[in-house]
Design a protein that fits this description.
homodimer, about 120 residues, alpha+beta, Arc Repressor Mutant, subunit A, 3-stranded antiparallel sheet, elongated, DNA-binding
DNA sequence: GCACCTGGTTACCAGCCGGATACCGGTTAG
DNA sequence: CTAACCGGTATCCGGCTGGTAACCAGGTGC
């Protein structure tokens, strides 16, 4: 999941910053904790994840809830607005997989002009 | 058209680089010349437009045609692949205008946490 | 007492992106 | 001859983005 060969690298369609799209995907099926998010988003550092989550929060796409229990616990979940983004996100993914071949071809064929 | 208050600034959905989405919109209704593109894209410099067009070309979304007439003439138009992007682009615009209010509210309401 | 887990923060840094400015070769208009 | 238009390129620069490394406070396990 989300390895370096992910189609999202090739697609010109982007949601928010580098990680935002994947974070939203991770939250698709319910709230997740900070450390739970770091697992699927392999290689993301704490700082960058925090950064991205804060931006999503500021834009009203994600809600942060800190539970006051004895042990520290923070959960992130999609707001209704964030959830509504899943639709265009799916559209974007559909487009990318539909035109996957053409995207690859275009990248690998600088033949039409020098170099 | 494409003034600084454009919704695209607020929407988290992006197509390619800063100008790519607008360029594609400009080419929606047929081929356009370099200088014709500079008009609606107010403020874009030649370098940046060239840059953006070259990227679009490399990715197979836009085709460049130089006509060999006595006077220099270059036209850019969407490839079928580029044209197929109009669909998700429309979806993105639809989402943005549909959630316009919420986007504004989110931006202007840092009230839920300090500062 | 000590290490460890959780959920971060604080420098610091390299690379890219967009922009400003200047320039260019070819053609046409006056 | 000169100026202007077309479609760029060359160079420089500041700011943002994403990443690394170090550190931290609070609570838990041994």
């Amino acid at each position: 999941m989300f390895d370096p060969l992910c189609p999202s690298d090739l697609s010109p369609i982007r949601i928010g910053d580098k990680w935002a799209g994947m974070i939203i995907r991770c939250l698709e099926h319910g709230p997740r904790r900070f450390s739970e998010l770091r697992v699927p988003l392999r290689g993301i550092t704490a700082k960058v994840l925090t950064q991205s989550l804060r931006t999503l929060e500021r834009n009203g796409l994600v809600a942060r809830t800190a539970y006051a229990g004895p042990t520290q616990r923070v959960e992130y979940e999609l707001t209704p607005l964030g959830r509504s983004l899943l639709e265009p996100l799916d559209a974007a993914c559909a487009w990318a997989s539909e035109h996957w071949d053409e995207l690859i071809d275009a990248r690998e064929a600088p033949s039409s002009f020098a170099q």
